[in-house]
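Journal club prep — side note

Before the paper discussion, L.F. wants everyone to see what a predicted structure for a comparable chain looks like in token form. Sequence:
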Amino acid sequence: MSDSRQGTEKAAGSQRKDVRRNKQILLDAAGAVFVTSGVDAPVRDIAARAGVGIGTIYRHFPTRADLIVAVFRHQVETCAAAGPALLASCPTAYEALEQWIDLFVDFLVTKHGLAAALQHDNAGFETLHAYFIDHLVPVCTQLLDSAAAAGEIRSDIGGLQLMRGVGNLCVGAENDPSYDPRTLVALLVAGLRRPRRPEQASGPGEP
């Protein structure tokens, strides 16, 4: 391969990376704005947060539905990737589960309003729901299995079951700013812990 061809391919690869990185910046900005202002937030607010012009957003996402779907998929992928990363970095599998559930709650809060925004496209929404299930249930299951194998939690709760429980606790948060589901979600996750045996309840030499 000639040096000029190698240089061209290297430049093209670098350009693709830049495009992906710029799209991720846009999607992160849109997700953050959706949390505070909903999925109907002005595009100019998203552009300002991302530090780009409005035209840049429309070039990547011609319609609001395109942007909403892209944000949904991006956050699903980010949440899915966080599971294995947390298992590798946290001191215990249970701590990894706790932190991942916090991220999952953030995702659920961000996607409020998605169904209403895409209600004209039932097939499209069903496709997104399948994407959500296919990517996140295995991650939640892996976290639960790891914590159960370590003896930290009970072993009779499945990934989809836990995710549904968390989702139910998040319902209504978008309509009531005073309601923070994280307190109840934390209680739910704490309820997974296995009861301590009597010999674990006190330290050495304690009654």
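L.F.'s comment for the group: The two ends are 76 Å apart (CA to CA). Keep this in mind when we get to the figures.
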